[in-house]
């Protein structure tokens, strides 16, 4: 039987999920096909909208700054209102899991590198730790979790924030191998594993006990983001009850538990909206007729199966997950071979300082105001293909701190426009 | 001012460190000064080939003979730095028969064991060789870790009483009464081991004899003393692949040419190289054509290289020397032999000798020759012992296997640590504290990092070369900050941050040259990790913290109102 839907979304990260949810809410039959894990498990779990433009002074009001961005920036394609609406959708989907929706002002979050960064939505588990909340802080790290050094992060933060930050390193309670994964430690907290049969102390209580002697005058305590996986709320609650002050997680790199929690929430929402989700197989090609895509082919191991749809959304991510790929000869978009603007000379793809304004960071497809990818002449590649998220070019999400905001807003607009265009 | 020493060695590459060890073992008082960290120069930027001599068997037989002799010595005294991979000279269908015969003949003349293999036999040893192979010559080439070997020499020199000072460039050679009497060094700031003096100060070090072992920089140090040393620096590129496509050294068997060798190194394979004369050993163009040429030419020999993932490229500068008046135009024709320049004989300037040219493989022999020379001048009769005395880490290799089980690490990690550390494994890995992995790609544990910090101070690039941490596939994306953390709190936040930034920048320097396919994808991920998640890309200039969102009350009510 032929596979048919109104809107077919390719890629299941923030952008693809937003597009599919929006299309489904508009009444379309929506299907989402995604290959590998999306970048959320690499990401910190923070939702950045716009943190910097030009200077090193972080932006307080991101919506006021958006109109100053250059014309080709994805935010300028969708407009400020669309960005607002997409955050409202995000808030609705992540209710209880995320904070920050009460204001349009950016917050400052501590990073595990010991810097602060402007962001718009933060996991509830990170809320008590905002650096824009002036309260003395204790950071706690674990001997074997080499990726978060609490004393160093604390010293770096302390030199830049208007409150005191101290850090200590303690052994994680229980018997673990020196190279136990972060997820293993999170599970021990989830299950509140017993340390010792006799006095029946659980991991959470033992942890609180170890921390309490370091508390001092601190008004809050931060841990690396490993405080439980499924049961993170209960884990935090127990620790707070035992310690008597708010407890928070410092957002971390991969594997990111806050990122995975968000991913779970998004996939629940997709299910609620009736989107058919299929993961594990890549889209490898397409057929088109008179400038319209008629179907894409999905590689199911032995066979390539055509998936038909009326409208298509390309949300395959950027260079990290190869939604944009390259060879020594050039940069390309692998599914539809949409045009990717780039300097012809490979040695002009980069600058010599790691954190310079890197040309490669802006690689991606160029789009019109309807988010349709454009060919080298500036005409839409296909009339029924839209692109969203990191596959878009013309912005540097790391430098601007705009990654998730762009994905959410362009995703939602692509889904909505696809829906409106249904024939 | 410190007491005068017998010998002051300038240059912390393989040559200088080899000399310092040799002289210190003979009982002389020695100070070595190096402008960067150890291996800062060409030694840290070479191909990793322990020459059998095969490459020089036709064109430069004197060098070839030295190579095979030293090759045997190093297997003995530096077992933990050498991998006895063996090497092949591979003739393809269109390569000249005549040269193949000359190569074979040359190897035999130089006493280099050489065995002819049929195409089938060659492909059996190296399955990824092209089907175009006609035949091959097997020789005892090896792979050598220049960092470990150089550092082991320095460590042993210190063990024998030498002073080794890094981040201490010589800014002047002191001449008094027509004689070199010492040098002036500047102790630089920046991360690194500076045990003896404060950064920002200068020091005069007096010595009975000064040895200029600055390789490609030898001309500059010569100039400071007012003598001409005609080094002709020549650059070459090397490209690191993500896996070992070959397990033996694979050479193309044809007359000289660029891009004709692949050397397996640890978990990687390294392609090389080019040979282009440059003006300045510190500032020369790193060019795209060189990178592209490696892949295009060497994939004729090993076709999967054209599809393989490149992780970075780097360049080194050969310290080639030719006696005045030789006038060779093509740098590939300049001899690979070394020269000892006695400035007393040559320039009527007593008190200083320069050593130039040569190869890494022959560093020990070079050190022996110049040490003999200097000892004779100073009236010291002690004999050289470096050909017999194993280097630290290579004393007793038989116990390796036991170590592997003993440390209870995941076995590949334990194995790799022990391979790197050799007989020092016990001393380094036996810690009371847990010993987690800091660098996943190269399986480097905390104990190794801390041991390296003890030797290298706060210079993370020096820690890197001692341990291989951050040198694998991720190029530091996941571990630069972890390495930096190990410096703290021994070093203060400012020093740690500077060292961290320096490491990140150094990693990027090589990654730039592998910026396509997987390499670009990895670079983008690293940029996201460093820029987006950690916000390392800039120091935020926050005017008013209170202007930002400080959360709501419910957000910090103890999490009690969390939905889920
Ligand atoms: C290390 C890191 C840290 C980050 N930190 C933050 C942060 O602190 N704050 C913030 O706001 N954002 C952060 N982000 C950004 C954010 O998580 C997303 O990466 C970004 O918003 C892009 O999302 P996306 O949906 O466009 O793409 P992705 O999340 O990359 O999703 C693309 C999906 O498409 C799939 N796909 C690709 N090709 C095909 C194909 N041919 N067929 C089918 N499926 C395909 C992929 O497998 C993937 O699942 C971070 C990202 C990274 C990598
Ligand atoms: C591309 C390439 C590939 C190579 N591959 C191989 C190979 O596979 N096998 C092999 O055997 N050989 C190889 N070589 C050759 C080998 O690397 C060198 O011959 C050897 O490393 C030179 O060591 P050195 O100690 O003489 O010089 P260097 O390592 O350059 O040491 C000189 C040191 O002096 C320091 N210095 C300079 N000026 C001052 C100053 N004013 N004050 C203080 N210090 C100063 C420098 O910082 C430097 O560290 C290769 C060379 C190149 C360029």
TrEMBL record, chain A:
Region (Disordered) location: 403-423
Please tell me which top-level EC class this enzyme sits in. Answer: oxidoreductase
Q: Keyword annotations for this protein?
A: Flavoprotein, FMN, Oxidoreductase
Q: Where is the FAD-dependent oxidoreductase 2 FAD-binding domain?
A: 6-406
E.C. designation(s): 1.1.5.3
Per its UniProt entry, which superkingdom is the organism in?
Archaea
Gene Ontology annotations for the cellular component aspect, listed alphabetically: glycerol-3-phosphate dehydrogenase (FAD) complex
Return one GO MF term: glycerol-3-phosphate dehydrogenase (quinone) activity
User: Signal sequence span per UniProt?
Assistant: none
Query: What name does UniProt use for this protein?
Result: Anaerobic glycerol-3-phosphate dehydrogenase subunit B
UniProtKB/TrEMBL annotation, chain B:
Q: Name one GO biological process term.
A: glycerol catabolic process
What range does the record give for the signal peptide?
Answer: none
Where does the record place it?
A: Cell membrane
Q: What is its EC number?
A: 1.1.5.3
Positions of the FAD dependent oxidoreductase domain: 6-363
Which coenzymes or cofactors are required? Answer: FAD; FMN
Which superkingdom heads the taxonomic lineage of this protein's source?
Archaea
Kindly state which reaction or reactions the protein catalyses: a quinone + sn-glycerol 3-phosphate = dihydroxyacetone phosphate + a quinol
Keywords in alphabetical order, please.
Cell membrane, FAD, Flavoprotein, Membrane, Oxidoreductase
Ranges where the BFD-like [2Fe-2S]-binding domain occurs: 437-486
Pfam families in alphabetical order = DAO (PF01266), Fer2_BFD (PF04324)
Q: Name one GO cellular component term.
A: glycerol-3-phosphate dehydrogenase (FAD) complex
Please report the record's description of how this protein sits within the membrane: Peripheral membrane protein
* An annotated Gene Ontology molecular function: FMN binding
Report the family membership.
Belongs to the FAD-dependent glycerol-3-phosphate dehydrogenase family.
Question: Partners and quaternary state?
Answer: Composed of a catalytic GlpA/B dimer and of membrane bound GlpC.
**Per its record, how is this protein called by name?**
Glycerol-3-phosphate dehydrogenase
């Amino acid at each position: 039987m032929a596979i048919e839907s109104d809107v077919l979304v390719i890629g299941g990260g923030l952008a693809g999920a937003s597009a599919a949810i929006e299309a489904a809410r508009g009444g379309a039959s929506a299907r989402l096909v995604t290959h590998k894990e999306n970048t959320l498990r690499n990401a910190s779990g923070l939702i950045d909208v716009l943190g910097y433009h030009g200077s090193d002074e972080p932006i307080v009001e991101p919506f006021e700054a958006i109109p100053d961005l250059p014309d080709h920036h994805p935010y300028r394609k969708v407009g400020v209102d669309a960005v607002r609406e997409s955050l409202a959708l995000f808030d609705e989907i992540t209710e209880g899991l995320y904070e920050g929706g009460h204001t349009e002002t950016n917050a400052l979050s501590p990073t595990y590198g010991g810097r602060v960064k402007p962001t718009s939505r933060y996991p509830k588990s990170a809320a008590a730790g905002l650096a824009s909340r002036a309260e003395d802080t204790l950071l706690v790290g674990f001997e074997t979790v080499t990726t978060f050094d609490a004393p160093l992060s604390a010293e770096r933060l302390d030199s830049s924030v208007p409150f005191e930050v101290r850090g200590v390193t303690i052994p994680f309670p229980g018997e673990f191998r020196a190279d136990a994964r972060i997820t293993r430690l999170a599970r021990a907290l989830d299950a509140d594993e017993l340390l010792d049969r006799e006095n029946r102390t659980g991991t959470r209580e033992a942890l609180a006990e170890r921390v309490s002697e370091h508390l001092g005058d601190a008004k809050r305590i931060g841990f690396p983001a490993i405080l439980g996986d499924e049961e993170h709320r209960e884990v935090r609650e127990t620790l707070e009850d035992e310690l008597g002050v708010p407890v928070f997680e410092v957002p971390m790199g991969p594997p990111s538990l806050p990122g995975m929690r968000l991913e779970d929430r998004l996939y629940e929402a997709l299910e609620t909206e009736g989107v058919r989700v299929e993961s594990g197989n890549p889209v490898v090609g397409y057929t088109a007729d008179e400038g319209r895509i008629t179907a894409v082919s999905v590689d199911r191991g032995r066979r390539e199966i055509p998936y038909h749809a009326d409208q298509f959304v390309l949300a395959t991510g950027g260079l990290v997950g190869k939604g944009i790929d390259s060879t020594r000869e050039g940069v390309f978009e692998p599914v539809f071979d949409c045009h990717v603007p780039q300097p012809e000379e490979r040695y002009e793809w980069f600058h010599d300082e790691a954190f310079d304004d890197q040309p490669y960071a802006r690689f991606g497809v160029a789009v019109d105001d309807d988010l349709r990818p454009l060919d080298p002449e500036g005409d839409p590649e296909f009339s029924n293909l839209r692109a969203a998220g990191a596959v878009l070019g013309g912005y540097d999400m790391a430098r601007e701190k705009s990654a998730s905001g762009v994905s959410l807003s362009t995703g939602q607009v692509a889904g909505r426009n696809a829906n409106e265009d249904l024939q | 001012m410190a007491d005068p020493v017998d010998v002051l060695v300038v240059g912390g590459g393989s040559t200088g460190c080899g000399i310092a060890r040799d002289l210190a073992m003979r009982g002389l008082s020695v100070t070595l000064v190096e402008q960067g960290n150890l291996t800062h120069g060409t030694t840290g930027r070479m191909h990793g080939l322990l020459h059998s001599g095969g490459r020089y068997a036709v064109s430069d037989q004197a060098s070839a003979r030295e190579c095979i002799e030293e090759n045997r010595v190093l297997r003995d005294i530096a077992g933990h730095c050498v991998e006895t991979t063996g090497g092949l000279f591979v003739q393809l269908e269109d390569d000249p028969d005549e040269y193949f015969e000359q190569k074979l003949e040359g190897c035999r003349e130089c006493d280099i064991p050489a065995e002819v293999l049929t195409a089938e036999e060659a492909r059996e040893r190296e399955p990824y060789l092209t089907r175009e192979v006609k035949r091959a010559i097997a020789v005892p080439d090896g792979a050598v870790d220049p960092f470990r070997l150089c550092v082991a020499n320095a460590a042993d020199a210190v063990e024998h009483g030498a002073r080794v000072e890094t981040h201490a460039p010589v800014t002047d050679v002191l001449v008094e009464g027509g004689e070199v009497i010492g040098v002036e060094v500047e102790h630089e700031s920046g991360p690194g081991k500076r045990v003896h003096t404060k950064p920002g100060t200068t020091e005069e070090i007096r010595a009975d004899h000064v040895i200029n072992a600055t390789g490609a920089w030898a001309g500059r140090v010569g100039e400071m003393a007012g003598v001409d040393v005609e080094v002709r620096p020549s650059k070459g590129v090397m490209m690191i692949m993500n896996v070992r496509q070959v397990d033996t050294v694979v050479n193309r068997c044809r007359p000289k040419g660029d891009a004709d060798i692949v050397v397996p190194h640890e978990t990687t394979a390294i392609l090389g190289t080019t040979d282009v004369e440059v003006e300045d050993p510190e500032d020369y163009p790193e060019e795209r054509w060189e990178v592209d040429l490696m892949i295009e030419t060497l994939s004729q020999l090993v076709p999967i290289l054209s599809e393989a993932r490149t992780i970075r490229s780097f360049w080194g500068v050969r310290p080639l020397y030719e006696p005045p008046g030789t006038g060779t135009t093509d740098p590939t024709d300049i001899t690979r032999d070394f020269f000892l320049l006695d400035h007393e004989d040559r320039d009527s300037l007593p008190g200083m000798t320069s050593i130039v040219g040569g190869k890494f493989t022959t560093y020990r022999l070079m050190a022996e020759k110049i040490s003999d020379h200097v000892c004779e001048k100073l009236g010291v009769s002690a004999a050289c012992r470096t050909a017999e005395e194993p280097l630290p880490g290579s004393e007793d290799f038989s116990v390796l296997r036991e170590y592997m089980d003993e440390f209870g690490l995941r076995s590949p990690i334990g194995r790799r640590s022990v391979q790197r550390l050799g007989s020092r494994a016990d001393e380094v890995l036996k810690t009371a504290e847990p010993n987690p992995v800091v660098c996943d790609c190269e399986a480097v544990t905390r104990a190794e990092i801390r041991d390296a910090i003890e030797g290298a101070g706060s210079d993370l690039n020096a820690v890197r070369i001692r341990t291989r941490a951050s040198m694998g596939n991720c190029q530091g994306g996941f571990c630069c900050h972890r390495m930096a953390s190990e410096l703290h709190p021994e070093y203060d936040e400012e020093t740690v941050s500077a060292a961290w930034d320096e490491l990140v920048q150094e990693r990027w320097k090589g990654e730039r040259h592998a910026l396509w396919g997987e390499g670009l994808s990895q670079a983008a991920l690293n940029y996201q990790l460093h820029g987006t998640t950690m916000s390392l890309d800039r120091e935020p200039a926050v005017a008013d913290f209170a202007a930002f969102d400080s959360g709501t009350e419910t957000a910090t009510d103890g999490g009690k109102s969390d939905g889920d």
